[in-house]
Amino acid sequence: MALTTAVRLHKYLAQCGVASRRAAEELIRDGQVSVDGRVVTEMGCKIDPGRQRVHCRGQLVTAGDTGLVYILLNKPAGYVTTMADPQGRPIVTSLLKDVTTRVFPVGRLDLDTEGALLLTNDGQLAHRVLHPSHQTTKTYEALVQGHPASQSLAELERGILIEGQRTWPAVIKLVKRYQHSTRIRITIHEGRKRQVRKMFGAIGHPVLHLKRIAYGKLQLGSLPAGRYRMLDENDLKKIFL
């Protein structure tokens, strides 16, 4: 992988497949990264990969010579989407039994949320998926308590105020009504923490079960929970449709 003489530290970590740029920034902020033996916590730090040695969590970081890998995993509930967990909970990469290349999750799914999760060692693709400017859509199926009124769902479609910040408009489709709950499909392009749960909570209908079913037009389909498949170029194009 060709690297410039001087490169921002978080970008270098992403290029080496350690984490997405956003997650790499968190690693730096948390004091998990050192350059030539000195812990670096300031954002914007530049390094020369040809001259300096970078460690993350005590492991030497190198660009390596592995090819780019793209994986779609059906994440089960109970797994964390971080690369390590101090509480000892299972991490999603432990499900990739036959994958020897180091990959990282693109964004996160809550511990109790299931469904489509991208994993890759391509920092540029991860940045493109996660950065708000690209408006990559994610579709979820939410089972919510009760039966939301049409005007409440219209609020979500227009954008709703959550913690002082208005969400971008969402696409809402009512899938099925049950006796005490409703299944709703919601498409958003933001990625705030627990955003879908907070949106439905804001209209008084807490989420009982949540599953991400698509990135753009890339569908999870019938992929069983805990299983994964490798993605090809056509799959990757669907993410941004």
Automatic annotation (TrEMBL):
Gene Ontology molecular-function annotations: RNA binding; rRNA pseudouridine synthase activity
Gene3D superfamilies, per database record: Alpha-L RNA-binding motif, Pseudouridine synthase I, catalytic domain, N-terminal subdomain, RNA-binding S4 domain
One Pfam family of this chain: S4
InterPro entries, alphabetized: PsdUridine_s_RsuA/RluB/E/F_cat, PsdUridine_synth_cat_dom_sf, PsdUridine_synth_RsuA/RluA, PsdUridine_synth_RsuA/RluB/E/F, PsdUridine_synth_RsuA/RluB_CS, RsuA_PseudoU_synthase, S4_RNA-bd, S4_RNA-bd_sf
Recorded superkingdom: Bacteria
Domain RNA-binding S4: 7-77
Name of the protein this chain belongs to: Pseudouridine synthase
Organism the protein comes from: Desulfofustis glycolicus DSM 9705
Lineage: Bacteria, Pseudomonadati, Thermodesulfobacteriota, Desulfobulbia, Desulfobulbales
